[in-house]
Amino acid sequence: MRIDPEERQQLLKLARASLGHGLLSGVPLPVALQEWPAHLCEPAASFVTLRRGERLLGCIGSLEACRPLVQDIAENAYAAGTRDPRFAPLRSAELAEVRLEISVLTPPQALSAASERALLSQVRPGVDGLILEWQGRWSTFLPAVWRQIPQPSDFLGELRLKAGLEPEFWARGLTFYRYQTITFREDALVPAQGTG
């Protein structure tokens, strides 16, 4: 999916408006699909991340493309500010200090690997996001997380911990998927590495 700079600005405005609306009303901003370009109404998965400076305040998203992108962004923006279990819900007074970042995901690609070494040989640091699934548990890290965890083995260990597993855990049936993102934020509209 191509999203030009003007559309990125509009999507960021939508995310902020939905978060602000939600903090006052308790529900995300309804999206009028007819007011958006057709390609932004196609099903797509996204994450919305909230920060104050470098401090994470919330991050919620979808891994499957199951609703129109603009609706997914509006709902995830509201959820990131109110439903991320790691953080207290935002208050309306904090909204002006928050900077939003949107990541639009490519469809996940299954990775086949018999060992951690084989898996990591297929993952591109700084480019690929990673999804882990194991017996009903799952976790994901967006490509942006490589900035905080640049070593591939540490990245994978933290991903396991996030899923409630031991950092060195490996077993038959452990499944991984990789994906890329188109990422843009309010303070700098710069595409993420590895995206077109």
Q: Could you say what the CATH architecture of the largest domain is?
A: 2-Layer Sandwich
CATH-wise, what's the superfamily of the largest domain?
Hypothetical protein ph0010, domain 1
- Proportion of β residues? 15-25%
Number of strands: 8
End-to-end gap: 9 Å
Oligomer: single chain
Instruction: Report Rg.
Output: 17 Å
Overall outline: globular
Number of domain modules: 2
List SSEs in N-to-C order.
HEEHEEHEEHEE
CATH topology of the largest domain: Glycoprotein, Type 4 Pilin
Describe the structure.
It is a single chain. The protein has helices at 5-25, 69-82, 116-120, 152-162, and strands at residues 45-52, 55-61, 99-105, 109-111, 129-134, 137-141, 175-179, 181-185. By secondary structure, it is α+β, with helices and mostly antiparallel strands. It folds into two domains: 5-106 and 181-185, Glycoprotein, Type 4 Pilin (2-Layer Sandwich); 109-179, Dna Ligase, domain 1. The strands form two sheets. A four-stranded antiparallel beta sheet has the order 2-1-3-8. Strand 1 and strand 2 (55-61) form a beta hairpin. Helix 1 crosses helix 2 (69-82). The longest helix is centred in the first third of the chain and has 21 residues, at 5-25.
